[in-house]
UniProtKB/TrEMBL annotation:
The keyword Transcription applies. It comes from Asaccharospora irregularis DSM 2635. Pfam families: HTH_6, SIS. InterPro entries: Homeodomain-like_sf (IPR009057), HTH_RpiR (IPR000281), RpiR-like (IPR047640), RpiR-like_SIS (IPR035472), SIS_dom (IPR001347), SIS_dom_sf (IPR046348), WH-like_DNA-bd_sf (IPR036388). This is DNA-binding transcriptional regulator, MurR/RpiR family, contains HTH and SIS domains. Residues 11-87 form the HTH rpiR-type domain. GO terms for biological process: carbohydrate derivative metabolic process. Residues 133-271 form the SIS domain. GO terms for molecular function: carbohydrate derivative binding; DNA binding; DNA-binding transcription factor activity. Signal peptide: none annotated. Keywords: DNA-binding, Transcription, Transcription regulation.
Length: 290
């Protein structure tokens, strides 16, 4: 797929610009020089803004992206964002949010960004990987769900609903002892779902690497093929997550987690109906709900 190739190639973007430099036009060389010095800024510039800053036309910017092998400037911009998003500090992210001038603008931009992220996720997620992940969850001896820092809320959501459907679902919690102690009995019959978004937790990668070495099947729910957990996962479900400010959107991650739960649930339809029937009787008996 062209998009996957462009994502992978972004890892070598800087060296690619350097190697292509001698063959670029005069205007394209100006763009290249500016990007090499300011790629963190260019990652959030429109083609028009980059052209104005460098002193070339917008069409020259587009041709520059094409010369590097990208189908358009947005793909080049995405590649630049892939390079920097895990390196930005929270303070730098706050400084990026200069377009959020008032509450109305914030509400509008954030919701539109979430919509775009879900749409992008739908276009990019690997349906075969999703199907395999669903089947692996269904047949696992035990499921371990890992998400650290802000990713923990997605892990908790996924674990809560999978636990209703399946037996032996364990959410790895940082307040329940060391993470390694919680997965020490993991085996090749087990599955780990690793949820990881920038800034990527080093501990998450270490725990997943240990699980992989023990033979467990690893499903990663993350935003990039460059994410550390993706490099060792058996199935990677890519979730679009553009950087709007100091808070990363987890909305698409919840959507994919929701889809996984429903996919597994539909394969266990009859068992679920009985389980919910039992739960309804308990809820009624103990007045759980109004």
């Amino acid at each position: 797929m062209e998009d996957s190739k462009e994502i992978k190639d972004s890892k070598h973007l800087i060296s690619n610009i350097q190697s292509q430099y001698p063959r670029l036009s005069k205007g394209q060389k100006l763009i290249a020089q500016y990007i090499l010095k300011n790629y963190d800024k260019v990652a959030f510039m429109t083609a028009c803004k980059l052209g104005e800053t460098v002193g070339v036309s917008e069409s020259t910017v587009v041709r520059f992206a094409n010369a590097l092998g990208y189908s358009g400037y947005p793909k080049l911009q995405s590649a630049l964002q892939e390079l920097i998003k895990n390196k930005l500090t929270t303070v730098q992210r706050v400084d990026m949010a200069h377009e959020y001038s008032d509450d109305s603008t914030i509400l509008n931009k954030v919701l539109k960004s979430d919509i775009d992220n879900i749409r992008g996720t739908l276009e990019e997620v690997d349906e075969i990987a999703f199907e395999e992940a669903s089947n692996k969850l269904l047949n696992a001896r035990k499921i371990y769900i890992l998400g650290m820092r802000s990713s923990f809320v997605v892990a908790q959501y996924l674990g809560f609903y999978l636990d209703i459907i399946l037996d032996s679902v364990h959410i790895i919690r940082m307040d329940m002892g060391d993470a390694f102690e919680q997965i020490v009995r993991i085996s090749e019959d087990d599955v780990v779902v690793a949820i990881s978004f920038p800034r990527y937790s080093k501990k998450s990668y270490q725990v997943v690497k240990y699980a992989k070495e023990k033979g467990a099947h690893v499903i990663s729910l993350t935003d990039s093929l460059f994410a550390p957990v993706a490099s060792i996962a058996d199935n990677t479900l890519l979730v679009k997550s553009s950087m709007a400010s100091f808070v990363d959107s987890l909305v698409p991650a919840f959507s994919v987690a929701n889809a996984l739960v429903i996919s597994v649930g539909m394969k266990e339809k009859e068992d679920i109906k009985q389980h919910f029937d039992d739960l309804e009787q308990i809820w009624t008996k103990y007045s759980v709900y109004e």
